[in-house]
Design brief:
6-stranded mixed β-sheet; 11 helices
């Protein structure tokens, strides 16, 4: 007999995230020997190999919509590749074996291994335009914040909705020359900045988490990272808006030919139209979202987070692996 209480089914369905986390754990562990060694490509290559191997064991048919792609000239985990056993649900999948390869090579914080999944045909393919302008925040921003407003207007509106003074607002933004004017506007509005060296996926998720010190994440970053972030935001009940930011007219024309809209505001439901989403991340290096891979005597310890859109659940997963089986 099946008993329902509201939307809670007492016979829950399969949680694909608990299987996918093995792939992000493997990628993070394989990258571990390269942390701080200055060779980001070696770290990325090791993570790609490990993630691809473990994805092949998962019972699903995953088509990679966002993969290593052109930016990394990757022979595996490329856009259009099908991964998994072929048994089980058909899914769109976005992968980033290391979001923050430069962070890993330098030994800096906030490098992650990431997988995001949704029902097949529901994930926007934005690969033809490499950058997006994004604004991400928690649920208080819904109906209050709008990417078409100035950053000062959005900061004031969100501060009012959160019941805190503007002077206590913390805005995350990638530390890039293109954001010099944006950073000045944020500070002129009276808010503080949290400058990210890399890895705006973690910045966006932290902006939507209720216990985070970051209130909003803004600026131009990778389009693939925007789609991945949207999968996480749907589980958190947060807010994301994006617009395409082509580097020139040729890229804009390429995007239009691929069906993307320029001068258009994409919402979470347009970036990922399904609520059946999973976001899985394992820390490569320490960060505010998850801890990095650690050697604990005879074991390697990983710290991961699993966000599920359908149920709105957040799971923390810590795992110990025997080091002698992973680190030669």
């Amino acid at each position: 007999m099946t008993t329902n209480t509201g939307t809670l089914n007492l016979h829950p369905d399969r949680n694909l995230g608990m299987e996918l986390v093995r792939a992000t754990e493997a990628a993070a562990i394989r990258a571990y020997p390269f942390i701080g060694k200055g060779d980001k490509n070696a770290a990325d290559g090791a993570a790609v190999d490990a993630m691809r191997e473990f994805l092949g064991t998962v019972d699903f048919s995953g088509t990679i919509v966002i993969g290593e792609g052109e930016k990394d000239n990757a022979p595996m985990l490329f856009n259009g590749e099908v991964v998994g056993t072929g048994r089980g649900p058909a899914c769109d999948i976005a992968v980033d074996p290391i979001d923050g390869t430069s962070l890993t090579g330098a030994g800096r914080q906030n490098a992650l291994s990431v997988i995001a999944v949704s029902d097949r045909g529901t994930m926007l393919d934005a690969s033809s335009v490499f950058y997006m302008n994004k604004i991400v925040a928690g649920p208080e921003a819904i109906g209050v914040v709008d990417i078409r407003q100035t950053i000062a207007e959005n900061i004031r509106a969100l501060a009012k909705a959160k019941g805190k003074p503007v002077s206590e607002m913390s805005i995350a933004v990638l530390d890039r020359p293109r954001h010099e004017g944006l950073i000045e506007e944020i500070r002129a509005a009276g808010a503080g900045t949290r400058l990210l060296l890399d890895g705006d996926v973690a910045g966006g998720i932290n902006a939507a988490r209720y216990e985070s010190r970051i209130d909003m994440c803004v600026g131009i970053g990778g389009s693939p990272e925007g789609i991945v972030t949207a999968c996480a935001i749907k589980a958190l009940g947060g807010f994301i808006q994006t617009t395409m930011a082509p580097k020139d007219e040729a890229e804009a024309a390429k995007g239009i030919a691929a069906g993307l809209k320029m001068d258009y505001v994409y919402t979470a439901n347009e970036l990922v139209s399904s609520d059946n989403t999973f976001f899985v991340a394992t820390g490569v290096t320490d960060g505010a979202l998850v801890e990095g891979v650690r050697r604990k005597g005879p074991v390697i310890r990983t710290d991961s987070i699993i966000l599920r859109g359908r149920s709105g659940t957040i799971r923390r997963v810590q795992a110990d692996y025997r080091a002698d089986r992973w680190l030669a």
